[in-house]
Amino acid sequence: MSKLLDIKHQIHALIKEYHDEAFKAKPFVEGESAVPVSGKVFDHKELTYITDSALDAWFTTGKFNAEFEKKLAKYINVKSVLTVNSGSSANLVAFSALTAKELGEERIKPGDEVITVAASFPTTVNPILQYGAIPVFLDVTIPHYEMDVELLEKALSHKTKAVVIAHTMGNVFNLDAITAFCEKHDLWLMEDCCDALGATYNGQHVGTFGDIATLSFYPAHHITMGEGGAVYTSNSKLKKIAESFRDWGRDCWCEPGKDNTCGLRFCQQLGDLPMGYDHKYIYSRQGFNLKITDMQAALGLAQLEKLDEFIKIRRHNFDLLTKTLHKHSNKLILPEATPNSNPSWFGFLITVKKDAGITRNDLVQKLNDKKVATRLLFAGDLRKQPYFKDYDYRVVGDLPNTDIIVSDTFWIGVTPMINDEMIAYMGKCFDEILGE
Fold first, then answer.
1. Do both 339 and 239 map to the same domain?
2. Domain containing residue 173: CATH number
């Protein structure tokens, strides 16, 4: 064993040496170096953790994943975290749990309505469609880019079963209003926190207000596993259901590599199968296999150690951009935090005013020419996406702010990859394009 440890220590030293040589920081050169909107931030620890996982030769979900789920649950202050292979899969698993037969009349069925917003990412809403439910679209507010809660009561019908909504770009939706609405009408609340890990409302982590919540660990997000996501909840029934959906739909809840945890493996009669049919191969629902590998979890563990610092930098970059671009507030609408919230910013949303003398598209093109990367607010308006023509939905009002987002809104980065020097350059670019 001591020989193996000695070899591992040598490997660790070589990994650090390799990282320091292969991933040297390059000086920023204005107009030549890219200013990114997002991307992975890592050091030798991530490579070391991944290598340690590989050396264990346990290639499916294992001890690194168990530790990651435990530490993330403690960080968020929630009872259960289940990792999955992407944020989109997290949304699918979380919504699937709300359709389970164990929930009785409360479960979401085909034809039921789910309140959400059209200014969204597709896979926040797609599970609603996949289960035959009907999305009911509300408008959003500007400059918060969150659901217009004044429209909630108008959206309600006898078919309404849930509210499914994302915390846009790390900002926080009005949780006081939305949780009160859901409690009043006995509705499920699913929080998509893929862009908002670490954000709080009245000091409480987002994702802990509703019944079930989701995260993404794609490289653009606050921490990364390369590909990965998570479902989290403090509802033990939903946790068990979500885990079953994630793990092939099986009835058994043994961890990989373990057998007969319940002691009833060969002494049950379920479905129309004979008594004693192996419980490991009993399926109580139509499920998936959406687990991650332990190597992904190892990467996530190393990233989790840096999360607080990442969030601190994102908030700093957001505040500095706000100060830098305030001089252009006659032409640009700058983003604002929702009252009572402390966002964990994913990006810096900007809406170009109609009388700015420049269009969003022209401004974005000029910024990209100067190597300042930009992105639009995801799908803009899901109703206008090509694939959405095949689905039914309901709309409350005319969604005027959503129309503005489609034509006039974009965002720039606050990622920890960006430093003060880059933000100063970004400010200079805006000055040159918009005028001092």
1. no
2. 3.40.640.10
Q: Do 216 and 124 reside in the same domain of the chain?
A: yes
Range of the domain at 402: 307-434
Determine the Cα–Cα distance for residues 135 and 156; give it in Å rounded to an integer. 12
Active-site residues, by number, are 221
Q: Please name which of 345, 342, 314, 334 lies closest in space to residue 410, comparing C-alpha atoms.
A: 334
> Domain tally for the chain?
3
Nearest Cα to Cα of residue 350 among 431, 310, 404, 425: 404
CA 209 to each of CA 193, 204, 344, 356: distance values in angstroms, whole numbers, following the listed order: 11, 8, 16, 39
For residues 155 and 425, give the distance between their C-alpha atoms in angstroms, rounded to a whole number: 44
Other C-beta atoms closer than 10 Å to the C-beta of 7 total 11
Residue 147 CA to residue 155 CA, distance in Å, equals 12
409-413: strand order across its sheet: 332-333, 347-352, 409-413
Q: Are residues 337 and 396 in the same domain?
A: yes
CA dihedral 298, 301, 305, 306 (to 10 degrees): 70
pLDDT by residue for the chain (436 residues), tens digit each? 689 999 999 999 999 999 999 999 999 999 999 999 999 999 999 999 999 999 999 989 999 999 999 999 999 999 999 999 999 999 999 999 999 999 999 999 999 999 999 999 999 999 999 999 999 999 999 999 999 999 999 999 999 999 999 999 999 999 999 999 999 999 999 999 999 999 999 999 999 999 999 999 999 999 999 999 999 999 999 999 999 999 998 876 767 667 777 777 887 876 888 888 877 887 888 999 999 999 999 999 999 999 999 999 999 999 999 999 999 999 999 999 999 999 999 999 999 999 999 999 999 999 999 999 999 999 999 999 999 999 999 999 999 999 999 999 999 999 999 999 999 999 999 999 999 7
Within a domain: 32: no
